[in-house]
Write a sequence for this structure.
DNA sequence: CGTCTTCTGGAATGATCGTTCCAGACACAA
DNA sequence: TTGTGTCTGGAACGATCATTCCAGAAGACG
């Protein structure tokens, strides 16, 4: 039986020289596909284009990934891993408590500027493939769930430091709002590059959240 | 010579019965193409799919529109026209000055819920087709320019009513921020429908802008 | 009536799509 | 050495792609 390398993770098995070469090919395919899909969407990216950019024949793509759909899932999974790995650990920030949120948002903004491909891919996939049964949408949701949880924790800490009370529902809404703003700022920058000041928009967000929390709490009372 | 109906506007010429039938076909094609492109993106929408949904043969599509690209441009143009026409005229709102902005945002939110197809198409096209020379991107920018101008006027009026000073640059940033939030809320609703409370997020935005304006002005001083 | 314009129907084009097949190249274990 | 699993190269498949062509239906106009 052949070795089904079509699975997502290479596992922890010892790798022969030949297999390591295959791993490199797999990576080149992932990178090429990630770039292309982020540029032109899923439907707009052909296997032959991935083949051309990666320098590997179509048969290699199909040996490493089950299908075009499987390739997409792997690209999303891999992209998320890399993107989050590039963010600094929020627990290690040495800023005073009332500035941690702002600092974290700055880091997110920088990541958006430095490595926009992944978020672009995520948004494109979310909008382009609303098939109920698409497994990739599930991956997208999971990735966004992580991001939302991180934002929520940062917001909670910030509000606590400022002695602003906030119940769970309010925190949830604020985290969703912040994630939405991150999407939005990114999109604005995509549509009108050079005309969009990403840090400025993130500063607006940071300046804004405490007041929003107070307003929400007041409304709830 | 044949009559080149491939142009966007039917003009003001008197229409014969045969021509009116053609106009109906044109509309059916535009509607079908708009739906499909909003669902699956430009690359994901085939002429044969448009033909199937509209009930007209491919040759009719090519008679009414120069090419697939031309069809896209017409769809965007037409969609923008319809979408803005569905919004109430801000000058006619009868709310007190300090609530006009909130009311306007509510209307925008409702429009997003009622007729999401157009914004979905706009975002999809913006992200999917980053070709420098794409004429459709120009249309997208123009449409967003209108929206931004409307938001800016509403924000300016709101701040004046609240006696919060704001210079041009601040107003511009706030308008961009608000437009971005509108995008974002829409996207969040697309990705996690039923899990996203659109009015709540728009209330956060409305509650947020005066504080943001004050913060921005303070920073600039 | 016949001619013109407008629009539709359907077949056809070559290109490209996703996917498969299979012969080999190459590193390992025996 | 002789397999055996791992991966690549390239040709090939039918399906579908955007687009074109042309015959003809049918109202308009004389």
């Amino acid at each position: 039986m052949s070795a089904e390398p079509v699975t997502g993770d290479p596992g922890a098995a010892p790798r022969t020289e030949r297999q390591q070469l295959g791993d490199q090919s797999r990576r080149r395919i992932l990178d090429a596909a990630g770039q292309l899909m982020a540029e032109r969407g899923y439907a707009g990216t052909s296997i032959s284009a991935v083949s051309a950019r990666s320098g590997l024949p179509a048969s290699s793509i199909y040996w490493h990934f089950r299908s075009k759909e499987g390739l997409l899932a792997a690209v999303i999974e891999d992209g998320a891993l890399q993107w989050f790995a590039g963010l600094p650990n929020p627990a290690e920030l040495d800023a005073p408590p009332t500035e941690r949120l702002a600092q974290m948002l700055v880091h997110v903004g920088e990541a958006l500027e430095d490595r926009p491909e992944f978020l672009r891919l995520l948004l494109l996939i979310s909008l382009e493939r609303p098939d109920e049964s698409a497994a990739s949408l599930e991956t997208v949701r999971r990735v966004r769930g992580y991001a939302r949880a991180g934002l929520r924790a940062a917001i909670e800490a910030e509000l606590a430091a400022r002695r602003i009370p906030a119940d769970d529902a309010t925190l949830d809404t604020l985290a969703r709002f912040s994630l939405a703003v991150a999407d939005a700022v990114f999109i604005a920058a995509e549509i009108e590059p050079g005309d969009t000041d990403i840090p400025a928009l993130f500063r607006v967000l940071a300046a804004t959240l405490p007041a929003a929390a107070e307003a929400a709490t007041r409304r709830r009372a």
Summary: The domain at 86-220 of chain B is CATH 1.10.357.10 (Tetracycline Repressor; domain 2). Chain B touches chain A through 48 residues (CB under 8 Å).
